[in-house]
Amino acid sequence: MGTRIERRDDGIVVLTVDHPPVNALPVRGWYELAEALGGTAPEDRVVVLRAEGRGFNAGVDIKELAADTGHQKLVAVNDGCYRAFKAVYECPVPVISAVQGFCVGGGIGLVGNSDVIVAAEDATFGLPEVDRGALGAATHLSRLVPQHMMRAMFYTGTTATAAQLHGFGSVHQVVPNDGLREAAMNLAADIAAKDPLVIRKAKAALNGIDPVDVNRSYRYEQGFTFELNLTGVSDSARAEFIRGEA
Questions:
Q1: Range 203-212 burial, b when 16+ CB lie within 10 A, else e
Q2: Domain map of the chain by residue range?
Q3: What does the sequence similarity comment in the record state about its family (predicted)?
Q4: How far apart are CA 160 and CA 153, in angstroms?
Q5: Class level of CATH domain 2-175+201-245
Q6: Which parts of 96-195 fold into alpha helices (H)?
Q7: 47-65: per-residue pLDDT in tens?
């Protein structure tokens, strides 16, 4: 359980997230993922970010937050998410996200900052933050869907399918579930076969011309999450979520 790192001889690094039952990451999990992404070696050429189980990522561990009587876990998990998303974006080599099942909350931060997304046919993407008394990752959802659709999804908590995102061009390829890993690895092999210095410079150049500073934008969003927590509305939303899970 945790984040496993597999380094292959061809320069492909496979990071596998495995936090049963739904890949909702605790504080430790976000920091662990950030550390794994930040530990790129000179011989690494491309990273494939994937997950075990029926879903790619269910965001933060709501139960861990609800069990904290203060704000220490909230501060820590917000920092952990910020570091993980930032590590994806600033990874010196391209990051390919291989997404199956649900990709919600923090999962949107990860894939939104990825370079390329390959998705299984059953993949769905969304931000249920409003229903959890939180905000955040609209920065990253804006990189996946058009502006007005992002706003509607954010306000309502509805999801978009892999096919919809493929139509927008944000998902590179949609494949049958049992072909997801192969598709991601084939794409990674194509990138790994290029000149590694050129690819690293290409990643730096593409980040440099981005119209939005994703790190600063997401940090701005997080400030409103802290405000909501201070009002008490977030505690109520988390408690309602846990009652619904029981």
A1: beeebeeeee
A2: 2-175+201-245
A3: Belongs to the enoyl-CoA hydratase/isomerase family.
A4: 8
A5: alpha beta
A6: 106-112, 138-141, 147-156, 162-168, 180-192
A7: 999 999 999 999 999 999 8
